[in-house]
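Hi R.,

As promised, here are both runs. First protein below:
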Amino acid sequence: MTARFLTMLCLAVTAASPAFANKVFVSNERGNTVTVVDSDTWEVLEEFPAGNRPRGITISPDGALLYVCASDDDTVRVFDTETYQEVYTLPSGPDPELFVIHPEGNPLYIANEDDNIVTVTDTQSHTVLAEVPVGVEPEGMAISPDAKWVVNTSETTNMAHFISTGDYKIRHNVLVDQRPRYAQYSSDGTKLFVTSEIGGTVSVMDIAADGTPTLVHKIGFSVPGVLPEWLQPVGARVTGDGKWLFVALGPANRVAVVDAQTYEVKKYILVGQRVWQLAFTPDEKYLLTTNGNSNDITVIDVEAQEAIKSIQVGQQPWGVVVQPN
């Protein structure tokens, strides 16, 4: 058998192989579990225990480890993404709610709602590197693409705090509207979007080359037939090309589609009840929503900007993350 024939055979087998399906992991706050969904078939693969009141959820850059904020256990539980077995826990500080991981997989930056701090945890040594005092009831966490800044939003202080990852000092504070829940950088790091649940807005900040933020706009929402107090921005995601911002609107049961350049709301997508957090598949073909009161996730076709499927998961789904390629 010639080398040329073997090469052609390998190419043929590769071409015939099915595309890799990414696993979707959903934290179920009331069910105390994580549900695993196949992103190809959209079938539920597994549901496993994840500690008490799992909320924030993220994954290591290589897709091997799943990190879950077990809020009522005051710890971060770490699971193998293939076996779903817990491999260890990480110190988190009290009541961990949301976190972000460094692009290289270490460290983990954790919002501790009860103690008004951000805990920085080394994922390799399993030790706390720093505790950063922030505003009252910290929740949202974001990390800049260059990993030089971590942003925390404090629900009661109504601020976004910009923490230098070099020395864990707060360098900037920006006042936003009432009860900021989530923060999201654009992929090029030039913009930051902060959702305010009670304020009903998304604050838009321009980010200078040195990381300095400037508040430039606030996006509002209006849906015919929906009470204004139901329009509660929570989770948010920006497409990699910077064109579209998707915002979960909580009890309004809708995801807003916003032009991320003009800040004009173009569309509202009807999803499940009490939509909370969002996550893209790696190719950004789909956007997934967690719907806490209908116990399901919605699959949105990003290009068509339409909901195409609903999948039942556990009790009160809260967070969602998709395994990277």
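And here is the second one, sequence first, then its structure tokens:
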Amino acid sequence: MLRMFLRKKQRAALVVSTLLILVLTMPTFAQGTTITFLTPPWGVPPDEAALTAFEEASGITVEIQSVQSADLFSRVQVAAASGQAAADVIFLTEEAPSNIVATGNMLALNDLIAATADLDLTDFNKVDFWTQDGQTYGIPTYLQLVMMDYNTARLAEAGFDAAPTTWAELSDMAQALKEQGVDEYPIALGAIDWSWYLIALSMGDPMFDADLNPVFADEGSKAREAMNLLLSYFSDELISPEILAGSINQHSLFWSGVGTFHQGWQGSVAVGNNPDTSQQAPNVAYLPLPEVGNTWSFPAAIGISANSANAEAAWEFIQWYVAPEQQEAIYNAFGLYPSRTSVGAALNEAGVIAGYDAILAQSDRINELPRYTLWWGPFTQSVSETILQAAQTGMSGDEVIDALAESWNDLRSEYE
């Protein structure tokens, strides 16, 4: 009897010991790991119920830190200086390549990708944008092209039955809209770098050569013409002075009902035609970019900090985040075009994506800017600051271009 009792105790001890070994050898994230996710506001998962379900199923708690992009970059850089991770998972905006990827702050994902059988990267567009020297640092979350849209009804009211095909035509139409009282400030562009890039690239200027020389500064370049044209829009009061005052950006201005021609993006028509968010609804359509029609892309991705102690849990969260269901939720919430080809096609078949054909046509005309260049971040800041100063003071476009070429070369000397 005593022997039987001892055997039962030994078996019970063996079971407890086995369970303890299993618990101790389970993956860290299954023990209630908490990971942090640093993201701009539009990267926050919009479906709270789906996020809660993921946390319950995985045992991973996700703490979301929502900040503006500039603050995100500075947090990552400050943390890296002390060998720390600003967060486990980091949302990568279009300016992340120069600010935090090329600087070594992100973890190469190649090994994690290779070990994940059910993540088909061939379904994702712009993986190459997040790949440097053969290493992939982010999984694309959404795609964006810088595009233009316009109010078709206002243009028709001014007597025009077709969109402009050149910048000269667009300028003439804008003047007519103003003179006829149809739209006092018919052009919604910002006093920022993007406005210059948009006009210059669509005119066919390459901006930089293969050796990163600033050919935008060449005498007679289209980029010089573009800068002079942009500044004339401010001096001729075709752009609202609210832009120069900094009280509003070009998107909010357009959606408030001011402007006929608007610098938009891949997905902006969905916002412009939403009566809950835009006074331009339902008359907004994409405007094929004039002349050569080139643009550049600003895809986003999600990656893991190089100093994260929770890379496996972070990777599990990333796989959930880029799943079709989440990409659909992000598109429905923010109008951000999915990076997965299959999701984009499904949404189009469902009649959800407005201007699908225009988006596809624009995607064939892309001239990427050198975003992995270490000094790209400070250069773009310099461009925006100089454009704003010129628009406020009457500085000429040629003076601006010369100053920007000098800034590019000085930064290049500093970083190389």
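A quick note on the second one: The first helix runs from residue 2 to 25. Let me know what you think.

Best,
J.
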